[in-house]
Specification:
Elements: H1 2-18, E1 27-28, E2 35-41, E3 49-56, E4 61-70, E5 73-76, E6 79-83, E7 89-94, E8 107-114, E9 118-124, E10 128-132, E11 135-138, H2 139-144, E12 148-154, E13 171-173
Antiparallel strand pairs: 1-2, 2-3, 3-9, 4-5, 4-8, 6-7, 6-12, 7-10, 10-11, 12-13
């Protein structure tokens, strides 16, 4: 009887280890028009980074407009919100883009995500800044104080004539990321 129990436990542990960890510690939000958005901690070296994950859950093809890019680099239209332990929410400023104004050769960033697939962006957490009574406080500092953060992408207000038929239109919000 003990041998049978030991074999059953071993088989259970092997099956558990063989399953795919689809969560990967991602704080997912609810899907909107077939697109789901999640946020997670990324690599910590050379500096702490944040993972932003977009997943096409059921559309044949999902084209997501995310901002613009030039020779200086990409600028993503993603909003970040900090939530204090008491529930108060405040904006977080994203300084991950290039400095200055992008003048010439600006192209839209539109990511293509096939059905069931994911697309990931990495951003420096030190360049996500909360202004606390005039003092700049980087996101890692605020997370250490038991704050949480979530991100959102909203393309619902964009003019329809500027889009192709297959471009995603809506608002997705990630889950809350806690330290």
């Amino acid at each position: 009887m003990r041998i049978l129990f030991a074999l059953a436990c071993t088989a259970g542990f092997l099956a558990l280890g063989a399953t795919d960890n689809t969560n990967d510690n991602i704080a997912w939000g609810a899907p909107d028009h077939g697109l789901r958005f999640g946020i997670a901690f990324g690599p910590t070296s050379p500096e702490p980074q944040m993972r932003l994950i977009f997943q096409n859950v059921d559309r044949p093809e999902c084209l997501v407009p995310l901002g613009s890019s030039s020779a200086k680099g990409p600028v993503y239209d993603i909003q970040f919100t900090l939530r204090a332990p008491d529930g108060k929410e405040s904006p977080v400023f994203n300084f991950n883009g290039p400095p200055g104004v992008q003048h010439a050769d600006v192209k839209p960033i539109v990511i293509e995500i096939p059905k069931g697939q994911k697309h990931e962006i990495l951003l420096s957490m030190k360049k996500l800044i909360y202004l606390d009574n005039g003092k700049s406080r980087p996101l890692p500092e605020m997370l250490a104080l038991h704050y949480s953060v979530h991100a959102s992408v909203d393309t619902s207000g964009d003019a329809r004539w500027t889009r192709t038929r297959d471009q995603w239109m809506g608002r997705v919000v990630s889950g809350d990321l806690h330290q």
